[in-house]
Write a structure and sequence with these properties.
There is one protein chain. A seven-stranded parallel beta sheet has the order 3-2-1-4-5-6-7, sandwiched between helices. It has eight helices and seven strands. Helix 1 runs parallel beside helix 2, helix 3 packs parallel to helix 4 and helix 4 runs parallel beside helix 6. It starts with 10 loop residues before the first strand and ends in a 7-residue tail after the last strand. With 252 residues, it is an alpha/beta fold. It binds NADP nicotinamide-adenine-dinucleotide phosphate. NADP nicotinamide-adenine-dinucleotide phosphate binds next to helix 1 and strand 2. The site of NADP nicotinamide-adenine-dinucleotide phosphate has 30 residues, from helix 1 and strand 2.
């Protein structure tokens, strides 16, 4: 799928594009010819590594530090991207965090921070980009949800609520902007090997693997391939969809 330079001329913003899934998405989109803006919030070194890898492969990338939960920061960053790069065509809402604990012990601030980054962050970025995309009459909004939004998980009530919320948000936005050539979809990964899942114990991973028909955890590249497809011209009639990338863990 991601072989030809199909995205030449397109500008992509990947939130949390410096590490994990976002890093793989940034590298793949750049390999397809897109100019990528790699957002991060704290780890500048990881962002530089991703940018350097893209540049070495002949791609175009720029880092951009902002916190997706801060409306003003996001809004001015998106305005600057439109002005500097002449547009924003592909928005990948990828930045996400976990603050896991059982509901009985969950502090209001653990609930609020996960909401602010995973759900309000998606509102902030999508709303900031949408009028420019409407003027362009072309856009791809791809938000990274999670299998946990569909099946829940003990210890992740806050995270599950954000990922389920993302689906309703996306389906509504999809209906609002379909006539302007803009699609909005969710990709819901299963368990993917990144820093986020590195906290799982070996026992937990072994128990999980037994439930995954594909017999392995996913890679960030597995998710990036799905993003490339939804970002393509060819996927223009797919909108309001939740695409699962989970090795068969949930067959929906
Ligand atoms: N890994 C999985 O198994 C899995 C499964 C399903 C869904 N997902 C979802 O996939 C997405 C990426 O997960 P991942 O595993 O790749 O995570 P990760 O390795 O922990 O990377 C998270 C990325 O998000 C950035 N970020 C965090 N908070 C931010 C904020 N407030 N503003 C801007 N950027 C921020 C980080 O930047 P810094 O480096 O600067 O902190 C980093 O680039 C998340 O939405 C996650 O919920 C992951």
């Amino acid at each position: 799928m991601c072989m030809e330079k199909k995205l030449t001329g397109k500008v992509a913003l990947i939130t949390g594009g410096s590490r994990g899934i976002g890093r793989a998405v940034s590298i793949k989109l750049a390999s397809l010819g897109a100019k990528v803006v790699v957002n991060f919030t704290s780890n500048e070194e990881a962002a530089s590594k991703t940018i350097n890898e893209i540049a070495k492969a002949g791609g175009q990338a720029a880092p951009y530090r902002f916190d997706v939960s801060d409306y003003q920061e996001v809004n001015s960053a998106v305005k600057e991207i439109f002005a500097t790069h002449g547009g924003l065509h592909i928005l990948v809402n990828n930045a996400g965090i976990t603050k896991d604990t059982l509901l009985a012990r969950m502090k209001p601030e653990d609930w609020a921070r996960v909401m602010a980054v995973n759900l309000t962050g998606v509102f902030n970025c999508t709303q900031s980009a949408i009028s420019g995309m409407m003027k362009q009459r072309w856009g791809r909004i791809i938000s990274i949800g999670s299998i946990i939004g569909s099946i829940g998980n003990a210890g992740q009530a806050n995270y599950a609520a954000t990922k389920a919320g993302l689906e309703g948000f996306t389906k509504s936005v999809a209906r609002e902007v379909a006539s302007r050539g803009i699609t909005a979809n969710v990709i819901a990964p299963g368990f993917i090997e990144t820093d986020m899942t590195s906290v799982l114990s070996e026992e937990m991973k072994a128990a999980l693997l037994k439930q995954i028909p594909a017999g392995r955890m996913g890679t960030a590249e597995d998710v990036a391939e799905a993003v490339c497809f939804l970002a393509s011209e060819e996927a223009g009639y797919i909108t309001g969809h939740v695409m699962h990338v989970n090795g068969g863990l949930l067959c929906d």
